[in-house]
Amino acid sequence: MVLQMATRRAMSSLLNRSFRLLGGRGAGLASGSQRFGTAAALDEPITPPVEVKYTKLLINGQFVDSASGKTFPTLDPRTGEVIAHVSEGDTEDINRAVASARKAFDEGPWPRMTGYERSRILNRFADLIDKHSDELAGLETWDNGKPYEQSALAEVPTLSRLFRYYAGWSDKIHGLVVPADGPHHVQVLHEPIGVAGQIIPWNFPLLMFAWKVGPALACGNTIVLKSAEQTPLTALYAAKLLHEAGLPDGVLNVISGYGPTAGAALANHMDVDKLAFTGSTETGKIVLELAARSNLKPVTLELGGKSPMIILDDADVDKAVELAHFALFFNQGQCCCAGSRTFVHERVYDEFVEKAKARALRRVVGDPFKKGVEQGPQIDDEQFSKVMRYIKSGVNSGATLESGGDRIGNKGYYIQPTIFSNVKDEMEIAKDEIFGPVQSILKFKDIDEVIRRANATHYGLAAGVFTSNIDKANTLTRALRAGTVWVNCFDVFDAAIPFGGYKMSGQGREKGIDSLKNYLQIKAVVTSLKNPAWL
Ligand code: ADP
Ligand code: MG
């Protein structure tokens, strides 16, 4: 038992630094899962090792039905079958939740307690996450379809790590005293901004919960969070644990429900002081407009991407293939920062394509609860159909389909790891965010050319560079217009590293010191000094 825990700890610390291991070639072929090239049907789904406990809305510290009494089903991506019926929030529920958050902000203890007291509650929450990690990981995989090993060994430990990071900030947030041209004592106070509205997506439900809730709570704000309709379960479970840790009622309210109803009501609300959103660029524009038309609440947006992964000619091709494979296929390709344009230097291009294909054929796809599975199903029918449409578009536009291109099994949303070579910049598959297991490999000749092509997109979320040439690496990291550039690594998400987009990939940054700014109001206090002689 002790040995097992030690191994788990060691693994989770590794995975915290990077999710790399998950794509490792060491993964054995789990029984019933398949290397996708074979046509075998998938086995019957494994019974998830967890039960669903919370399905109601969380308002003012209580689980309650929605005002309408309506519910909606959350589905198992492995089968499309119903996991549970969850209370469906709409405008009236958002109003109740905002009123509760308002009261907790205006009258409650949370913004008034010391930073140290807040940090103690956030640290207790992190301990409870670790204690309940099996349930959290089980729910996350069941609702989302991602491999259980990824949930358990990477995401849940990252969740507690993020809350410990923000617990550390709680008692270190302070303003400044600044000099002025005159007999004035000038203080710049950093105050919580008020009621934060937060809308999160389905691809990393727990991590998005942490990126939003962590900084808002550290700064003393209150929150109404709307989870994604595809994955409502873990936010409710985590919020319950946060209350167990001592969070006062009304500080965090969680509303499950759909975007155009509950989400829009939150973005549009006159009594919400700040909005944070992660999702598609299209929806980002809608919520920004709602925020502007209502009360001009400031908005942070983390949106889509079409990130380049650039392999230079000095690359060790085997390593480059593995990294580019991970950069694209991780999380079923459902990452806003997925390295979805693999640019490979012409000198190593053919070898790269051949090896990338072999790697994709080795990828273990299957029931995400099975050990060793690297890829589960896509989240839902809509995303599945969208990815399949893009695969067709790739074939029709003349790209070479090297591997995959089809679904796996006849139930649920499994897609074969798919690779296109000879992809041209103007093809739809090279321009649009596919959000699925489809790798597009493009050829380039020189560095200036690849910089121009990599930047020729409306997106600017992330980029990857693979080289051991320091000068070329420096040139690329400076020239690429993206919020994150990973050199010889990808998807490294430390709590202290800021994340966010250039251009249409977003506004503002999450994680790291910059994330606190999103949740602070700045107040200048200017006091006249009676005795200017002391200036
Ligand atoms: P995706 O297309 O990947 O599901 P979305 O941007 O549609 O991404 O969804 C991200 C989050 O935004 C989800 O919580 C969703 O419910 C919410 N959402 C969708 N449409 C709207 C909207 N019109 N107003 C507010 N929130 C929305
Ligand atoms: Mg679901």
TrEMBL record:
EC number from the UniProt entry: 1.2.1.3, 1.2.1.5
Entry keywords, A to Z: Oxidoreductase
Keyword Oxidoreductase recorded: yes
Domain of life: Eukaryota
Enzyme category, top tier: oxidoreductase
Name the record gives this protein: Aldehyde dehydrogenase (NAD+) protein
